[in-house]
Design a protein that fits this description.
The chain contains two helices and five strands; from the N terminus they run E-E-E-E-H-E-H. A hairpin with a 6-residue loop joins strand 3 and strand 4.
C-alpha cells in the first residue's frame, strides 16, 4: 500500500521534512516513489509547500495520507478555496 507521509531530513535540532509517496512497508527515509512538497516546522509560522494536485492524484490512485499530512492537505484545500 502506498502512503503519503513526511520524511525527515535536516540536521540535529533543525528538522526539515519532505512530503513523499512511498511504500508503507518501507521506512520513511527509504527511496520514495514521488516527492510532492516540503515542510519546514522551524520557521514561525511553519512553512509548507505541497503540490495539492499531485497529492490528490495519488489519493485517487489509492495512496493513504498519514494523519499529519491529512491535516496539512485539509489546510491547503481551505487556503485554495
Amino acid at each position: 500500500m502506498l502512503k503519503i507521509r513526511l520524511s525527515r531530513e535536516g540536521a540535529i535540532h533543525r528538522p526539515f521534512y519532505h512530503f513523499v509517496v512511498s511504500d508503507s512497508r518501507k521506512r520513511p527515509g527509504a527511496n520514495a516513489v514521488d516527492r510532492i512538497g516540503h515542510f519546514d516546522p522551524t520557521r514561525k509560522p511553519p512553512v509548507s509547500h505541497l503540490d495539492l494536485d499531485r497529492a490528490e492524484a495519488w489519493i485517487s490512485k489509492g495512496a493513504v495520507p498519514s494523519p499529519r499530512v491529512n491535516a496539512i492537505i485539509r489546510k491547503a484545500r481551505k487556503a485554495r478555496a
